[in-house]
């Protein structure tokens, strides 16, 4: 029985950082070293201001850092010392070349794998943590076996991560399941068992699922496709609600009470964002096309198309309501992160909304409690945006407020004060269904909510 005593994680991002910090937190007998090429990121992990915001992350890191949890750019040493290595690097959608716009860019996975092969002096268990296309483990094994020196063994496991940003620490401490795929050979099963033992330090064994490698790789893409599909389904229904007078929250509740459907992930919104859903579905679409399954590809592609439609539809509703023009008007955008409780803006619906507003030559006054100013300037290079320090500052003298992220604090604002300082009529567009429309209407607002007709006077 292999016992894991030393773990290295390549990639100190949203997944590698929290995931391996929790392993260190729960397994004091294991030394965990998280490495990255990005020196600024590693410096931040070693400082008081961690590079990512996640509720509960500071406590976990500050408790174990310097004891059995280390962050470094000394990749070679960490790889050499480790008996198990997580590869948790980014796998973005390819921007050019074959499969551009759909396929996952595996350049970082390959370079991390080659890095392991070139420095390894002992046998290793190598774990795909990144989300990758089905059968990537096979390529990793070939690279490792043909590029290493000596008689080393590399067992490849697939252990996709199911955490959601904003609840990462909770998801890692109490996962619904941990999935570990391995080649079904005696050595593969041994490696699978070794990783299962690590998780068994805090996860009950009935929640640790072991499968073959390809099922594990495909399950990650499938799980994200299912989740995104639910959002696109409810968003498609929200368009029907706006046209008919049905209320999307009531429809979601009525449907969700059916135990076969369930209530979770049925909140209509301006559209899903985040670094994963779109990327992973497009990856699935590409895989389906490559396998000559065009009908399957078209089915999943529609989930992404509907998401784009939802954002466009929301923008059109805003322009139409603001008397068919927003040129030279000012709009307060509350929320820039792709969801609450994170500072991550990757694929945030807010970015698309802002770009549309700016194209129409409106000025956008942005407020988000967690997103750094520099990040907003990276996401929006166009002129026409103002970053503000509070929702009150953002909404001063504007024509309309748009809720783009469901931050809890937006439910509790002093809307009477906000109303007084806005141009009239004062419009508010709730893209996240978090506001009390009746209350706002009583103050004097004209309220437009996704999935509802305008509040009738
Ligand atoms: P990220 O971009 O935040 O972090 C990846 C890190 O890997 C970067 O800091 C980068 O500098 C580093 N890196 C790249 N190549 C390297 C190399 N050769 N050596 C050392 N470091 C290297 O990405 P994130 O969000 O952590 O995602 C990682 C993977 O996990 C992706 O495949 C993603 O699809 C998957 N995933 C992401 C989730 C999320 O919520 N962000 C959830 C579940 C899976």
From TrEMBL:
<feature type="binding site">
    <location>
        <begin position="11"/>
        <end position="16"/>
    </location>
    <ligand>
        <name>NAD(+)</name>
    </ligand>
</feature>
<dbReference type="InterPro" id="IPR001732">
    <property type="entry name" value="UDP-Glc/GDP-Man_DH_N"/>
</dbReference>
<dbReference type="InterPro" id="IPR036291">
    <property type="entry name" value="NAD(P)-bd_dom_sf"/>
</dbReference>
<feature type="binding site">
    <location>
        <begin position="338"/>
        <end position="339"/>
    </location>
    <ligand>
        <name>substrate</name>
    </ligand>
</feature>
<dbReference type="GO" id="GO:0006024">
    <property type="term" value="P:glycosaminoglycan biosynthetic process"/>
</dbReference>
<feature type="binding site">
    <location>
        <position position="346"/>
    </location>
    <ligand>
        <name>NAD(+)</name>
    </ligand>
</feature>
<dbReference type="InterPro" id="IPR028356">
    <property type="entry name" value="UDPglc_DH_euk"/>
</dbReference>
<dbReference type="GO" id="GO:0003979">
    <property type="term" value="F:UDP-glucose 6-dehydrogenase activity"/>
</dbReference>
<dbReference type="Pfam" id="PF03720">
    <property type="entry name" value="UDPG_MGDP_dh_C"/>
</dbReference>
<feature type="binding site">
    <location>
        <position position="260"/>
    </location>
    <ligand>
        <name>substrate</name>
    </ligand>
</feature>
<protein>
    <recommendedName>
        <fullName>UDP-glucose 6-dehydrogenase</fullName>
        <ecNumber>1.1.1.22</ecNumber>
    </recommendedName>
</protein>
<dbReference type="InterPro" id="IPR014026">
    <property type="entry name" value="UDP-Glc/GDP-Man_DH_dimer"/>
</dbReference>
<comment type="similarity">
    <text>Belongs to the UDP-glucose/GDP-mannose dehydrogenase family.</text>
</comment>
<dbReference type="InterPro" id="IPR036220">
    <property type="entry name" value="UDP-Glc/GDP-Man_DH_C_sf"/>
</dbReference>
<dbReference type="InterPro" id="IPR017476">
    <property type="entry name" value="UDP-Glc/GDP-Man"/>
</dbReference>
<feature type="binding site">
    <location>
        <begin position="89"/>
        <end position="93"/>
    </location>
    <ligand>
        <name>NAD(+)</name>
    </ligand>
</feature>
<feature type="binding site">
    <location>
        <position position="41"/>
    </location>
    <ligand>
        <name>NAD(+)</name>
    </ligand>
</feature>
<feature type="binding site">
    <location>
        <begin position="276"/>
        <end position="279"/>
    </location>
    <ligand>
        <name>NAD(+)</name>
    </ligand>
</feature>
<feature type="binding site">
    <location>
        <position position="432"/>
    </location>
    <ligand>
        <name>substrate</name>
    </ligand>
</feature>
<dbReference type="GO" id="GO:0051287">
    <property type="term" value="F:NAD binding"/>
</dbReference>
<dbReference type="Pfam" id="PF00984">
    <property type="entry name" value="UDPG_MGDP_dh"/>
</dbReference>
<keyword id="KW-0560">Oxidoreductase</keyword>
<feature type="active site" description="Nucleophile">
    <location>
        <position position="276"/>
    </location>
</feature>
<keyword id="KW-0520">NAD</keyword>
<dbReference type="InterPro" id="IPR014027">
    <property type="entry name" value="UDP-Glc/GDP-Man_DH_C"/>
</dbReference>
<feature type="binding site">
    <location>
        <begin position="220"/>
        <end position="224"/>
    </location>
    <ligand>
        <name>substrate</name>
    </ligand>
</feature>
<feature type="binding site">
    <location>
        <position position="165"/>
    </location>
    <ligand>
        <name>NAD(+)</name>
    </ligand>
</feature>
<feature type="binding site">
    <location>
        <begin position="130"/>
        <end position="131"/>
    </location>
    <ligand>
        <name>NAD(+)</name>
    </ligand>
</feature>
<dbReference type="Pfam" id="PF03721">
    <property type="entry name" value="UDPG_MGDP_dh_N"/>
</dbReference>
<feature type="binding site">
    <location>
        <begin position="161"/>
        <end position="165"/>
    </location>
    <ligand>
        <name>substrate</name>
    </ligand>
</feature>
<dbReference type="InterPro" id="IPR008927">
    <property type="entry name" value="6-PGluconate_DH-like_C_sf"/>
</dbReference>
<feature type="domain" description="UDP-glucose/GDP-mannose dehydrogenase C-terminal">
    <location>
        <begin position="332"/>
        <end position="437"/>
    </location>
</feature>
<feature type="binding site">
    <location>
        <position position="36"/>
    </location>
    <ligand>
        <name>NAD(+)</name>
    </ligand>
</feature>
<comment type="pathway">
    <text>Nucleotide-sugar biosynthesis; UDP-alpha-D-glucuronate biosynthesis; UDP-alpha-D-glucuronate from UDP-alpha-D-glucose: step 1/1.</text>
</comment>
<dbReference type="GO" id="GO:0005634">
    <property type="term" value="C:nucleus"/>
</dbReference>
<feature type="binding site">
    <location>
        <begin position="267"/>
        <end position="273"/>
    </location>
    <ligand>
        <name>substrate</name>
    </ligand>
</feature>
């Amino acid at each position: 029985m292999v016992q894991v005593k030393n773990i290295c994680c390549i990639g100190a991002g949203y997944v590698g950082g929290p995931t391996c910090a929790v392993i260190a937190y729960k397994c004091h007998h294991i030394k965990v070293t998280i490495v990255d090429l990005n020196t600024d990121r590693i410096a931040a992990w070693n400082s008081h201001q961690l590079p990512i915001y996640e509720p509960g992350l500071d406590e976990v890191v500050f408790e174990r850092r310097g004891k059995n949890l280390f962050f470094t750019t000394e990749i070679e040493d960490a790889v050499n010392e480790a008996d198990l290595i997580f590869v948790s690097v980014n796998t973005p959608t390819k921007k050019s070349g074959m499969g551009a716009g759909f396929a996952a860019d595996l350049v970082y996975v390959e370079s991390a794998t080659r890095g392991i092969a070139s420095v390894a002096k002992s046998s290793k268990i190598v774990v795909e943590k990144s989300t990758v296309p089905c059968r990537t483990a096979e390529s990793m094994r070939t690279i490792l076996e043909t590029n290493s020196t000596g008689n080393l063994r590399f067992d490849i496991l697939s252990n996709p991560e199911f955490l959601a940003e904003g609840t990462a620490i909770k998801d890692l401490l109490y996962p619904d399941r941990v999935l570990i795929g391995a080649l079904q050979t005696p050595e593969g099963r041994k490696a699978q068992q070794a990783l299962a033992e690590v998780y068994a330090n805090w996860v009950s064994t009935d929640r640790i699922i072991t499968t073959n490698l390809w099922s594990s790789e495909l399950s990650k893409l499938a799980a994200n496709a299912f989740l995104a599909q639910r959002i696109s389904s409810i968003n498609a229904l929200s368009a029907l609600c706006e046209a008919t007078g049905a209320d999307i929250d009531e429809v979601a509740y009525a449907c969700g009470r059916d135990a076969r459907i369930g209530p979770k992930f049925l909140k209509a919104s301006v559209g899903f964002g985040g670094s994963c859903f779109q990327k992973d579905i497009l990856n699935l679409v590409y895989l389906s096309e490559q396998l000559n399954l065009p009908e399957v590809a078209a089915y999943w592609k529609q989930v992404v198309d509907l998401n784009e439609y939802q954002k466009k539809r929301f923008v059109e509703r805003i322009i139409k309501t603001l008397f068919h023009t927003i040129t030279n008007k000012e709009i307060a955008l509350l929320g820039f992160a792709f969801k609450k409780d994170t500072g991550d803006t990757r694929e945030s619906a807010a970015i698309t909304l802002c770009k549309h507003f700016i194209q129409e030559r409106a000025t956008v006054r942005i407020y988000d409690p967690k997103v750094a100013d520099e990040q907003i300037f990276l996401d929006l290079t166009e002129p026409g945006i103002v970053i503000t320090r509070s929702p009150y500052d953002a909404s001063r003298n504007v024509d309309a407020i748009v809720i783009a992220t469901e931050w809890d604090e937006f439910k509790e604002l002093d809307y009477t004060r906000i109303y007084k300082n806005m141009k009239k009529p004062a419009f508010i567009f709730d893209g996240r269904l978090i506001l009390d429309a009746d209350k706002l209407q009583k103050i004097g607002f004209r309220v437009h909510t996704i999935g509802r007709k305008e509040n009738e006077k």
